[in-house]
């Protein structure tokens, strides 16, 4: 292996692919050697994303044109349902972080139920590690294939998992009311994502059937030590970036919102990217824009015995590409925050 880690990004013409490039061009241990985009093959990346011009990047190519002998590490930012066969075809020596949902669900039958087709690489699913770093650090370090978590599951699980592990909240009464920026829907032209369809209004989607529900339930069930079914409703907001999750929970007997906040402060002390805010302070998506940070707030509910958790991330960074690089850093033995040191952009 050369001094620099030779990295390929599959699906570099989408938003998460572009974010990987934006962050990795400043990573001192990485050299981008291959960028793929089936429909944009042959073009310079700057023609597709002008903000990434001037960095001496390779031109876009098709996946079958990549010389894998010159690659050490792969980020797969392809659409859901297309990644399993692609990763199965790669040389087994390559380490991979997959940003799609194709390897996030441990059970292949659950995957088939929610994604509408059989899993195409069940043998790889058995080795895939779920890459929520703060909850699964040791396994990520030893992994060859990491399934990068979804944006909503990242924002939802970070505040919930420590509380469920300690029995501070009741697992059978969790409501997640989440909002996302439009970039979460991807870059393909879709009528539902046109300016006139999303501006000056808010709407729920995937009600009682969003594919991130089983991913969240998988994590909270493991933390609670029993099967958990929760209420999860996402909403589309007229903004480019951001996830805001309002999570309504029922306290365990004798516990208070102060107990929840103290437990979260303790769980995330020393963590670079997760910060629990002072009592009474509500996190805002504008305060994590462009960063790999997650901010968490805890409030007592007006309803006795209940509390409100607020969690915000940038859906394209901590909810996708930034977390993917955090996973890569762990897998390759680099400092976890390398290439991710940038502060949030405000205003």
From TrEMBL:
GO terms for cellular component: cytoplasm. Residues 6-143 form the Semialdehyde dehydrogenase NAD-binding domain. Signal peptide: none annotated. Its main location: cytoplasm. CDD domains: AGPR_1_C, AGPR_1_N. Keywords: Amino-acid biosynthesis, Arginine biosynthesis, Cytoplasm, NADP, Oxidoreductase. It comes from the Bacteria. SMART domains: Semialdhyde_dh. The keyword Transport does not apply. Pathway: Amino-acid biosynthesis; L-arginine biosynthesis; N(2)-acetyl-L-ornithine from L-glutamate: step 3/4. Its EC number is 1.2.1.38. Pfam families: Semialdhyde_dh, Semialdhyde_dhC_1. It catalyses: N-acetyl-L-glutamate 5-semialdehyde + phosphate + NADP(+) = N-acetyl-L-glutamyl 5-phosphate + NADPH + H(+). The active site is at 151. HAMAP family: ArgC_type1. Belongs to the NAGSA dehydrogenase family. Type 1 subfamily. PANTHER family: N-ACETYL-GAMMA-GLUTAMYL-PHOSPHATE REDUCTASE, CHLOROPLASTIC-RELATED (PTHR32338:SF10), N-ACETYL-GAMMA-GLUTAMYL-PHOSPHATE REDUCTASE, CHLOROPLASTIC-RELATED-RELATED (PTHR32338). Catalyzes the NADPH-dependent reduction of N-acetyl-5-glutamyl phosphate to yield N-acetyl-L-glutamate 5-semialdehyde. This is N-acetyl-gamma-glutamyl-phosphate reductase. The gene is argC.
């Amino acid at each position: 292996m050369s001094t620099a880690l030779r990295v390929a990004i599959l699906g570099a013409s989408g938003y998460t692919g572009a974010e990987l490039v934006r962050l990795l061009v400043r990573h001192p241990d990485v050299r981008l050697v291959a960028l793929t985009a089936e429909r944009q093959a042959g073009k310079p990346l700057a023609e597709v994303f002008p903000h990434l011009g001037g960095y001496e990047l390779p031109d876009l190519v098709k996946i079958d044109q990549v010389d894998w002998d010159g690659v050490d590490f792969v980020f797969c930012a392809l659409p859901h349902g297309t990644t399993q066969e692609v990763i199965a075809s790669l040389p087994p020596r390559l380490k991979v972080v997959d940003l799609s949902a194709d390897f996030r669900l441990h059970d292949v039958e659950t995957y088939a139920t929610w994604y509408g087709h059989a899993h195409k690489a069940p043998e790889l699913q058995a080795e895939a590690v779920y890459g929520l770093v703060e909850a699964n650090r040791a396994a990520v370090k030893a992994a060859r294939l990491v399934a990068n978590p979804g944006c909503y599951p990242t924002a939802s699980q970070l505040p919930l998992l420590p509380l469920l592990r300690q029995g501070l909240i009741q697992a059978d009464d969790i409501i997640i009311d989440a909002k996302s920026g439009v970039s979460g829907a991807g870059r393909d032209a879709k009528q539902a994502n046109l300016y006139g369809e999303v501006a000056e209004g808010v709407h729920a989607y995937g009600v009682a059937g969003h594919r991130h529900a089983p991913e969240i339930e998988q994590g909270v069930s493991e933390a609670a030590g029993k099967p958990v079914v929760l209420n999860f409703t996402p909403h589309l907001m007229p903004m480019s970036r951001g996830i805001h999750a309002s999570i309504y929970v029922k306290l365990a007997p004798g516990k208070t919102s102060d107990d929840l906040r103290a437990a979260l402060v303790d769980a995330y002390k020393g963590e670079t990217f997760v910060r629990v805010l002072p009592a009474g302070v509500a996190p805002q998506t504008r305060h994590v824009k462009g960063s790999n940070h997650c901010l968490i707030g805890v409030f007592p509910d007006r309803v006795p015995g209940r509390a409100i958790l607020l969690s915000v991330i940038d859906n394209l960074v901590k909810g996708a590409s930034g977390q993917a690089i955090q996973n890569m850093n762990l897998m390759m033995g680099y400092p976890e925050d390398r290439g991710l040191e940038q502060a949030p952009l405000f205003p």
